[in-house]
Amino acid sequence: MVVYFAFLFHIYQPPTQIAPVIRRITKESYRPIIEALKTHPEAKITLNINGTLTEQLSDFGYNDIIDGITILASRGQLEFTGSGKYHPLLPLIPEPEIKRQIQLNNETNRNFFGDVYQPKGFFPPEMAISEEVLKSIKDMGFEWAIMSGIANTYNPWPTTFISQNH
C-alpha cells in the first residue's frame, strides 16, 4: 500500500514582532528546516509564508532564509501557497479587501522570491473560510485551499473527493 503524506508549513509573524523573537524563531525553526531540506533533495513541502514575515526576514538581515526558500522552490522541493498579507480573518472583511490582502501578499512575496513564487494553493489565515472567500480565491486563480476538518460539510471526510462547486 502506498501512503501519500504532505507537509504544509505555515510560518507567520505579526508585523509588530520584535527582533529577538524573529532571531530565536529563525535559529530554532526556519533555518533548521531549510537546511534539512537542502540536504535531502528528495523531500518536498508546501509553504505558507505571509508577506509580513518575508519583509521582517529581510529587514532583520535573514536573507539566507529568503535565499534558501528561493533555492528550494527553484529545485521543485517547495510549493508556495497564497494567503492574506496581514493574516486577516478573511470571512470578516469585505470582498474587495479580501482580494487586496491576497494581492498585497502576492506582490510582497514575488518581490522577494521572484518568479518561483507561483502559488496554486491557498492558506486562509486561522483556517477561517467562507463561501465568499472560496469564490474570491477561485476568482484570483487559486486551484485549491486547505481547510480544517471542522469546515467539512461532508461526513465522513472524503479523502479522494475534490469539490467542483467552487
Overview of the molecule:
The protein has 166 residues and is of the alpha/beta class. The chain has a single domain (8-151), classed as 7-stranded beta/alpha barrel. 42% of the residues lie in helices and 11% in strands. The protein is built from five helices and five strands, in the order βαβααβαβαβ. A five-stranded parallel β-sheet has the order 1-2-3-4-5. Strand 3, helix 4 (95-113) and strand 4 (121-122) form a beta-alpha-beta unit. The longest helix has 21 residues, at 19-39. The chain is globular, with a radius of gyration of 16 Å.
**How many strands, what sense, and barrel or not for the largest sheet?**
5 strands, parallel
The CATH topology is: 7-stranded beta/alpha barrel
Please report the total strand number as a whole number: 5
Number of domains: 1
Reading the helices and strands in chain order gives EHEHHEHEHE
**Would you tell me the overall average pLDDT?**
91
Number of helices: 5
Task: Write out key terms for the chains shown.
single chain, 166 residues, alpha/beta, 7-stranded beta/alpha barrel, 5 helices
